[in-house]
Amino acid sequence: MSRTSAPPSTAGPDSPGTVTVDSALTHGLKQRHLSMIALGGVIGAGLFVGSGAGIAAAGPSIVIAYGISGLLVMFVMRMLGEMSAANPASGSFSVHAERAIGPWAGFTAGWAFWVLLCVAVGLEGIGAAKIVTGWLPGTPEWAWVALFMVMFLGTNLAAVKNFGEFEFWFASLKVIAITLFLVLGLLAILGVLPGTDAPGTSNLSGEGGFLPNGSNGFIIGLLASVFAYGGLETVTIAAAESENPVQGVAKAVRTAMWRIGLFYVGSMAVIVALVPWDDPKVAEVGPFYAALDHLGISGAAEIMNVVILVALLSAMNANIYGASRMACSLVSRGQGPVRLGKVTSGVPRRAVLVSSVFGFLCVLLSYWRPDDVFPWLLNMIGAVILVVWIFIAVSQLLLRGRTEREAPEKLVVRMWLFPVLTIVALAAMAGIFLLMLRQPDTRNQLLATGLLTLVLAGIGVWRQRKGAGAVR
């Protein structure tokens, strides 16, 4: 049983004297774990429930919206895969941003992502508790949240292979559920499912047509679809603890991209073909439930509740893991409190504990301050994932040439049509920012996230100029 610490370093990631946390972590994840983490990371409640609001706004054109945002996500995943295969690190894009732009960028991207994951842990715990209290009325929500927190705290405090096994089976259940849904939906669309008639194109062209709410509705659907894809970053964080990080992340990225597109775009196409987009059930109880109910599947609500519960618990598990590794990586690079970086038996247990406690604090805020502090917290993390994607794209743009000159053999995964598609992706992200400014709800999110990013960037620049080590 080894006990090691991750000491801070003021050197950059490229410096020979840099001490990173990765050497202290174990390598207990297998290829099957990485593949399922890559798939399961983006298949969450945002798809099963959140997509209903997008369909209600965009109508059948939500298929195009998910196709466009899915393409952007594929670009981001490819860029991140290129850098992570060349330099696997538990800090993932934070390490890449530090190498490409400077310590302040790694600090900003890393801690913003940590806050996002911790708040998300709390939100997912609340969502899971609501489902269970629906089955067991009278039981307190906070007790279920506490139980889930303790369960995944235990999972993440143990060896990393336990996290990998949990995620493998959670992700497998989600993939099986979506696959069965797509098969049933396709059979119904073709008119070969017993008891159903082929809908033809009536739901795609009726009730206002393919674009029933005009361009404004399409924009709302597009923004909803962009943020439904968050979660792909976890696989590159986990790759640093796999048996073969380079080959592992390369294979996971390649196989996951087209499957993600199939699941998201395919699911939206099946739903809007089967169910009228303005059916109240789509937004109220979720599009997957509405589609299953339309097909006459008995117990559709309970089936979807089980799937959503699995998705939420999977996300809790993955986010505690991702937050702890990101925090530990930041500390190892002198970007956080030294004591948080201790690694015991290959696990950053203090980082796991602090990340979980912060997540549970967010849950308590939802009860204590539901009208002011908690909504502000939600707005603050609303667009963090887009900020992270921008750091990824800029980092890849700067690091590609450096890697080609210094170690071209490390480019196991290459971004397509570099630098054209990287620049296209950055332009698309800038466009999404402009679209968010047009919408009142997303404008508040963007401004709050912008404030968080500016504060972190200011602290990062100050620390960089002072040449500060870790906070003691």
From TrEMBL:
<keyword id="KW-0813">Transport</keyword>
<protein>
    <submittedName>
        <fullName>Amino acid permease</fullName>
    </submittedName>
</protein>
<feature type="transmembrane region" description="Helical">
    <location>
        <begin position="216"/>
        <end position="239"/>
    </location>
</feature>
<feature type="transmembrane region" description="Helical">
    <location>
        <begin position="142"/>
        <end position="163"/>
    </location>
</feature>
<dbReference type="GO" id="GO:0006865">
    <property type="term" value="P:amino acid transport"/>
</dbReference>
<feature type="transmembrane region" description="Helical">
    <location>
        <begin position="36"/>
        <end position="57"/>
    </location>
</feature>
<feature type="transmembrane region" description="Helical">
    <location>
        <begin position="297"/>
        <end position="316"/>
    </location>
</feature>
<keyword id="KW-0812">Transmembrane</keyword>
<dbReference type="InterPro" id="IPR004841">
    <property type="entry name" value="AA-permease/SLC12A_dom"/>
</dbReference>
<dbReference type="Pfam" id="PF00324">
    <property type="entry name" value="AA_permease"/>
</dbReference>
<feature type="transmembrane region" description="Helical">
    <location>
        <begin position="351"/>
        <end position="368"/>
    </location>
</feature>
<comment type="similarity">
    <text>Belongs to the amino acid-polyamine-organocation (APC) superfamily. Amino acid transporter (AAT) (TC 2.A.3.1) family.</text>
</comment>
<keyword id="KW-0472">Membrane</keyword>
<feature type="transmembrane region" description="Helical">
    <location>
        <begin position="374"/>
        <end position="399"/>
    </location>
</feature>
<keyword id="KW-1133">Transmembrane helix</keyword>
<feature type="transmembrane region" description="Helical">
    <location>
        <begin position="63"/>
        <end position="80"/>
    </location>
</feature>
<dbReference type="GO" id="GO:0016020">
    <property type="term" value="C:membrane"/>
</dbReference>
<feature type="transmembrane region" description="Helical">
    <location>
        <begin position="175"/>
        <end position="196"/>
    </location>
</feature>
<feature type="transmembrane region" description="Helical">
    <location>
        <begin position="443"/>
        <end position="462"/>
    </location>
</feature>
<dbReference type="InterPro" id="IPR004840">
    <property type="entry name" value="Amino_acid_permease_CS"/>
</dbReference>
<feature type="domain" description="Amino acid permease/ SLC12A">
    <location>
        <begin position="33"/>
        <end position="441"/>
    </location>
</feature>
<feature type="transmembrane region" description="Helical">
    <location>
        <begin position="260"/>
        <end position="277"/>
    </location>
</feature>
<feature type="transmembrane region" description="Helical">
    <location>
        <begin position="411"/>
        <end position="437"/>
    </location>
</feature>
<dbReference type="GO" id="GO:0055085">
    <property type="term" value="P:transmembrane transport"/>
</dbReference>
<feature type="transmembrane region" description="Helical">
    <location>
        <begin position="101"/>
        <end position="122"/>
    </location>
</feature>
<keyword id="KW-0029">Amino-acid transport</keyword>
